[in-house]
Request: fold
Amino acid sequence: MAKVNVTGIADQLKACGITHVVWVPDSELGALERHLDPGIHLVRACREGEAMAIAAGLLLGGARPVVVCQCTGFFEAGDAFRNVVKDLGLPLFLVVGHRGAMALAAGKGRDSAARYLEPILKAWELEYRALGPDDSPSIIGEWYAETRRRGIAGAIVVAE
Amino acid sequence: MRTEDCLRELARHRTDEVVIAAMTSAVLWPTLSGHPRDLIYVPSTMGGAPGLGLGIAMARPDLHVVVLNGDGSMLMNLGSLVTIGEQAPPNLLLIVFDNGLYAVTGGQVTPGAGRIDFAAMAAAAGWPGAHCFAELSAWAGAAPGLLAARGPVFVQLKVDPAPGSISPPSVPMTERLARLRAAVDG
Reply:
């Protein structure tokens, strides 16, 4: 099965001018740590809801953070996400690992985490773009630029 | 000691710090301060105030950030002590008002009420400064120095149980954030 293109993601984060990656790593996106540009500050959060709050503070301070987590952590962080995006109105940007997505696409998936993500993204009114194993990582830069132009929150959903 | 008396001491010595007030403090702090660098964090995500403060402190090392948190909120996100301990922002002061209650929901008892040594937890998580005060005079004497100290500094204030309630300020959050941004960018 194809692997996540973490070097492509790292290059895109640098090209976007990301200042901070606030994350709880998962088994696929975790490899990003070795490829992050040294100019990007890595903030290791203890849980994903905390990562959302930290990113909110960074945004208020004028930085350009991205939250990186697995979809399971995104589920856990629901109230923090709601507060940052809906109450505070901040343009949070996330890279979310879609656990089990490739198996699901191949008709082999039984992981509820894979099935739950897209309905939850829609229910929580978070616009997103999917990044599959054969897609160009440039989707990240294009979507990040669009979210900033529109002043909205957005996510890149990375098939795992 | 009473929460409002502790806050009054803080207000006496506060100068130009960003102050993020959550839960009970969000109700009381506006009665003591109308500073443009105040952020009354209501509605909030419970437990989110330390992370919010950490983010501002990291993005703006030229500012000093004070977070006023409740003990129930601290319990909900204890890991933030570890995260902040690792990032070690020198410009962050976190104050936890420990009354052993979920005050704003009617005064239900928190887990471990009265037995939790938050300051010891912060110290164990690597905070260079971690303090606990149970007497107002001691807090009043220490507050000026702790506001000026190199952080991150953690303060646990053991305050009297006092159930309360909370409601969003009349000024919308978007306007409060705009005021804060103008105050720190000006």
Observations:
- Strands of chain A lie at 20-23, 41-44, 65-70, 93-98, 128-131, 154-159.
- Chain A has a mean pLDDT of 96.
- Chain A has one domain: 6-126+133-159.
